[in-house]
Each structure stands twice: as C-alpha cells, then as structure tokens.
Amino acid sequence: MGWSVGAVIAQACHASTAVTHMFYNDLHTQKYLADLDNMHKIVLEAADESKLTDLHSKLSEAKIDHKLWIEQPENIPTCLVCKPYPKSEISKFFKKFKLFK
Q1: Rounded to whole angstroms, how far apart are CA atoms 3 and 38?
Q2: Exposure of 78 by Cβ count < 10 A (0-12 exposed, 13-18 middle, 19+ buried)?
Q3: Residues 43-62: tens digit of each pLDDT
C-alpha cells in the first residue's frame, strides 16, 4: 500500500488494542495478560487488501475471534488481529502468510 513502517505499526497497535478490549474477559486473553513480560506476538504480512479480507472471511466462518481494523476516513482494511489463542487452534489460517519485514 506504500505506507511507512511507522504507519503500519500504528495500524497494528490500533487493532491489538481493540481486540484486547473486545475480548478482555475471555479466558485466553486473561491468561495472556497475566504475564505481561512474556507476551508473544507474530506479525505477518498480507500482500494486498483482498488477502486481508479473505482471511477475515475465513476466520469469521470458523468463529475465530478477531478484529479487522478499518482505517478511517479512508475505509481501508489495514490490519487483522486475533485474540490470544493457542497456536494449535489458529496456525492453519496463517500458513500462507510470511513474516512482516
């Protein structure tokens, strides 16, 4: 999309904050937040908007809790964050994505 790395990081921060708020009372979220010094995140890259919206659809169909961040006022999907889950429950949805560089 031609965004600076800082702008991309800001989008991820918005989405991470939103998903934490949305699913704050969830057991996995509470376990994740119980050890703040050992949080683990993986940042992956979606090649384009369609890959991001396709992932959103697949996660929604599978009832995987997540937040698709839509940047306003542009109305552009920029980031997707899942609530904390065991890796074994969600890794299959992310196999096609590479680490963000």
Answers
A1: 29
A2: buried
A3: 999 989 999 999 999 999 99
